[in-house]
């Protein structure tokens, strides 16, 4: 679904997509995106369909708790993915965790990969982060392959790490460092 003028302030632009910070005018496009992809994201992500959730999301971004990115296709301005940098810790640790989800209609076409690379570049260059981690349920093979392809390394296993859909779920912990992000950028 097209949204109102997402290109006003792209944070990064790639060959297929550009990333922008979520804004109030994106609310309905986001709602349509999560409804359209609800079955595709289960059992790994359960989204809230309450419109107030989006307002709370924007508030978390304003407070600096989260840095959100909406991924838009260059040719159509369609919302094709979402990436969130959560639990941002600066100073000596300079670390954060990632959450992400894409549109099933764009799966396997490179849009999420390029969007993630743009978001990682922003995380290192603009936020000054040294390390980003993604925690992934072991049976989410597409997501495991996704982070592997981008250059994340498996660091470990966290039993009952995160409560999703009312159940505590095991996760594999994957991470990427700033030098790997910079190196990958120079080789793509």
UniProtKB/TrEMBL annotation:
Keywords: Acyltransferase, Transferase. The keyword Transmembrane does not apply. InterPro entries: Acyl_CoA_acyltransferase (IPR016181), GNAT_dom (IPR000182), N-acetyltransferase (IPR051531). Residues 17-179 form the N-acetyltransferase domain. One of its GO terms (molecular function) is protein-N-terminal-alanine acetyltransferase activity. One of its GO terms (cellular component) is cytoplasm. Belongs to the acetyltransferase family. RimJ subfamily. This is Uncharacterized acetyltransferase SCO6490.
